[in-house]
Specification:
Pfam families: Methyltransf_24. This is Class I SAM-dependent methyltransferase. One of its GO terms (molecular function) is methyltransferase activity. This protein has one domain: Vaccinia Virus protein VP39 (Rossmann fold). Helix content is 40%, strand content 22%. It is built from nine helices and eleven strands. The longest helix has 16 residues, at 23-38. Bound molecules: S-adenosylmethionine.
């Protein structure tokens, strides 16, 4: 993995895919996956909730061609043509355009609430990085958090999207329920504006330190926070930088927008 290529991908290519991950979380994904690689913490990578593939292609780019990334989605957005939805067709097209062709064997198309954990591990083994970004109702979040819990490796990380977003209040309830119900085993080590990062308790300090020491996160303010009995690092992206980044990308300076997120 050449880190400068991945930064380039984050700041140049990711915005070309409709979707929801922004540079701060993309850099947290990169930092955690790179830390796992450096420490030989192997395992599969999975995401529930692909949409058009913005975070899926980031995971694929970081993983490289030799690692599988399993994608799970209903893939039912838009019109159907020859049994294929607009969403599915566009997702495959993005993969080809970005030079990250989708291996359709690595997709589970359908409702995640009907999946068994073994269907995931049969495809990719124990999971080292699981992004939960599918249905945002409490029922689905409960199901998906259990799928992640039951499939991750001992050193696995679970990322919950849209926590504390008032548009999706049941996500926050579901994550809090999960952490309380599994409080003996899991803890939160990092929080961003949009996502909550969880691992097994034995790895809490390891992943916390990975965030604190990550070269790619040097541009952010790291603050201390507490969530349901865990101390976690909050990765804060100041308004001034968000504004600078948006101005650069919207005024055709996307190619140099990466500079807004460099550590000075
Ligand atoms: C917020 S979007 C995912 C965003 C994506 N991760 C990105 O980076 O842009 C949520 C996705 O979850 C999918 N979804 C919703 N409910 C689902 C379910 N029960 N099972 C599988 N996928 C589901 C939707 O089809 C949609 O594509």
């Amino acid at each position: 993995m050449v880190l400068s290529n991945i930064r380039k991908f984050i700041f140049h290519d990711l915005r070309s895919v409709e979707g929801y991950i922004d540079p701060p979380d993309a850099l947290v994904f990169l930092s955690l996956l790179d830390c796992q690689r450096q420490h030989n913490l192997s395992g599969g990578i999975a995401e529930i909730g692909i949409y058009f593939g913005r975070s899926y292609f980031l995971l694929k780019k970081i993983a490289g061609p030799d690692e599988d990334v399993l994608g799970i989605d209903l893939f039912d957005i838009g019109n159907l043509s020859h049994g294929i939805s607009d969403q599915y067709r566009l997702f495959l097209e993005h993969g080809n355009r970005l030079g990250l062709p989708v291996d359709e064997e690595m997709l589970l198309v359908g409702d995640s609430t009907t999946l068994a954990a073994q269907e995931i591990t049969d495809k990719i083994g124990a999971v080292r990085f699981f992004s939960v970004d599918g249905g945002h109702s409490l029922t689905t979040l409960t199901n998906d958090s259990h799928l992640a819990r039951d499939t991750i490796a001992d050193h696995g990380v679970i990322v919950f999207d849209d926590t504390f977003n008032p548009a999706w209040p049941e996500v926050t309830v579901g994550v809090a329920d999960f952490l309380r119900d599994n409080d003996d085993a899991f803890s939160t080590f990092c929080m961003t504006k949009y996502k909550t990062y969880v691992c097994r308790r034995e790895f809490h300090d390891f992943y916390r330190a990975a965030i604190e020491q990550a070269p790619d996160l040097g541009a952010f303010d790291l603050a201390e926070t507490h969530f349901l009995g865990c101390d976690a690092v909050r990765v804060h992206n100041p308004f001034s930088r968000r504004l600078l980044y948006e101005l650069m990308t919207r005024s055709g300076m996307g190619a140099i927008s990466e500079r807004a997120y460099r550590c000075h």
